[in-house]
## 1
Amino acid sequence: MKQLERQKVINYKYTTTFESPLLACEINESSLISKASLETLAPLVPTDIDYESNLDLLGVAFNAAVVNKFNKNGDGMNAATAVEYTNNFIHKPTNIEHDKHKIVGHIAAAGYSKFGSNELLSQEQVKDTTEPFNIALGAVLYKTINENFTILVEKSLDPDDAAFQKVSASWEVGFNDYVLAVGSDVLSEARIVADPDEILELQGFLRSCGGNGTTDEGESVYRLIMGDIYPLGIAYTLNPAADVRGLYGGNPSKTQVFINDKRDKISQNNNLNVNNQKNFINMEMEKTLNELKELLSEKKFSKEAVASMTDTFAEAIRERDEQYRKDIETQKAAKEGVTKEYEELKSSVSELEEKLNAANERILVFEKDKKAEEAVASFNTYMDKLDETFKLDDQDRAFLATELKGLENVEAYEAFASKLEVLWKHKNKEVQAEFDAQIQARIDEEVAKRISAASTEEVKIEEALDAAETTDSDVSNSNEAVASEEKSFRDKFKAAFSRDNIEIS
């Protein structure tokens, strides 16, 4: 079971840090009343330690993280998560700049404070709130582990020192799950994104994923850690991401006490892993100068001591001068290299912009030509369809050519064609053919009626002629003429009732 629990800690998919200012003091009356902010957090400083007899220990208190608000790294947590896991930080180690091999203390107490004023709050007051608040911790610092760091911490408590407010606290946690918050660094004002597909689409904008923290549209994107949270401890850092920086506390003791421990101290033998090394160099110089001033003020030193000190300081100055010159040359070379890279990059970007502009122009020409070709093809298609549908003359085609040029898409053509079906119904080839067939049928019917009537009249005439007496040969010739005329009677009717001679409304 223990092995499984250990494995669970190691295999957290993500880690993040929450950085805030450190509030520190040695427990004495002056420190408790020196600053209002420190006074409010004083109950978190471990009180079960006699700091007067344990000169190698320093009690500290600090705001470790802001809840319901996202830090500059783009991470945050809600009140429910904070309340569930805050106490798990107790007895976890503290280190320098997240170097787990440089442990300098441990966490001893946990609580909550009001964002902005550091007024202590109860769990009941914060568990359901949507307002930002702090997670506050109390810890013990081991003063003898790293003397240089201890001096820096105490200097950061001194308002009169150049290192005042330089040290802050950075809280590190492990977690497996998160959702996104978009639009605001205040959780209550942000839009929560829990859909896996949308998270996948937006997570590339997170600072933790290499983005700049904003979408292409300018919306801020943050990571709200969820699920199982595992506190890994805190680090003291010179580069916090919190909105408020620095140390608050009483004036530190000017008398440094370091125990002469002859055991091999790995943490003291290694170089201090802090980003800004110049702070420690200056600190060492100040310490040396103070020691020299104390020695000179006593006026109890021999010529040999003076000579030794002179040689020592001369050598130190020479070494520092050489190092200074090397640093200047290194910085100059680095600057020249950066300038050269910048110019090369600028030139490359300019060239790429020219190529991009040329490509865009070609694309525009291509799209214009393609659009023209598509317009011509569409015009021909539409014209062919209308020519197949309607009986058109030259005037009709000229009208259609003007109208079809203004049609942007198929939908516009279909709407125009529907109007023509109504306005040009008489020009529709199918309708006209059907109409002509009806007219022809009526003509044939009328001709048949007239022929039938004419045939009846012809019979009556023939009967009358048969009853008449024959007179002479001229009559016979006349009958032949009438007979001939009667033979073409049917043809005359058909000619009289042709489609060209009849108008039907």
## 2
Amino acid sequence: MPTQWNTVPIKFEGGWRTDLGRLEQGLQYPGSATRLINFEPSIRGGYSRISGFTKFDNTNVAPSKADPVIGVVVVSETTALARKGDTYYTSFGSGWTQKAIVGRTGATRINFDSYNFNGNEKFVIVDGQEDPLFYTVGSGTASFDTNAPSDVTGASLVKVFKNHIFFAKDNILSFTAPYEETNYDTGDGAGVINIGATITGLIVFRDQLIIFTTSSIKRLDGNTSTDFVLQPITDNTGCLSPYTIQEVGGDILYLGPDGVRWLSATAKNNDFGLDRASANIQDEILKIINPNNNYASIVIRSKNQYRLFNYVSGIDKTLSEGFIATKYSEQDVSNISWSQIIGMKVYSAHSRQFLDKEIILFTSSDGFVYRMETGNTFDGLPIKFVFETPYMPINDPRIRKTFYKHSLYLKSQGILDLTCRLKFDYDPSGSIQPPPFTLLGSSDVSVYGSAVYGGAYYSSTIADTFINQTVGSGFVVSLSYEGNIVTPPFIINHTVLEFSINERR
């Protein structure tokens, strides 16, 4: 009987998953990943190696201070405001300048928001210890509101809503008179609201102020103190940290006590299971959930992407962990894919959009401020990347297949060095597996073409299709692609495997 030849295309999609059995994942989601490190699911399809980060300013914020940089504000495309110890500093990218010294110490994070009441953009900043700080962007001046009432002094959260400045301290939400940043007179429209539980987050969303607590979520409707109305969203769950709350793709993501959640699904379902955005990697997210942990997050608007970081002081930066979530559809909250970041130690972060340019800054434990999404390294270190598919039975896990050809389709921005591996039958201990092979390419990307694995260059350009003749046999097969060199970003789109059918087990 002649050999039956088969071809199976595998589209890389679905992201990192840890919620399925190994046979189920390989059978139903062959293009998903059991490991997806320093790749990001792309809204255009496939998995893209993430970009690197570089120092925003090549100097330490304050080398004489041993304290960590507890917060950073993107002021403009070229300017940042940072807090280290008890002092605020500004930088235009060529050295940090002292701006203001607070009266007390002990702050571990800052929280801020921007507004424009009188033609000048300002930031209001709180730290859980001090009087509010007001920073004027145009002049660079900074001043403290030393006359703030006790419900405002020591506030840990701040948000501007309907031309009032709202301050959160414990369970109290205080707000100023409209268009007046330091007027707390109730006769002029200021006020105080007792939320009934410790406030853990504030965000303005769809003309409402969303108020997160340790055990509930509420919203504030209305325009002034005369018609503000507090409404419940859910009493079944809350938010762990204000620094995990971000607007992504027309919805709100936040870290709750049982995982990363969508606000819209929480409000609609009021159920613990249906609204978890982190369902695909739930076990991994649960490992980092602790009310005492230091979290940070940013949103990359151009990618519909949310990044969540768990800062652990005693872990080396090369081992520090983060998570990437990409939302593909504004209509479907379940249409989200995950991956893992290793090598970014993020203490605090802030991102801001300026027309077509997005500036993303973060602080770490070494006294520097870094800019994300820049360069091809992690501040000079190669970006280690890994993508590993599940073990794929390819229709029937009881039929042995012999694989002869492996075609990989990708797009690269330049020089590429990629180690590829085929593994069979769950790679049991002591089993002989095919050796890895290396894909090499150089120079510019060609639109069409093909090349052969094994160290040979394809002319002067890297092709978008690479074909390798390989021999291996097994009932299930897994593919892995990895590297640890300085290389520009690239996207792995899909692969095609050619094989013959052997005997049934």
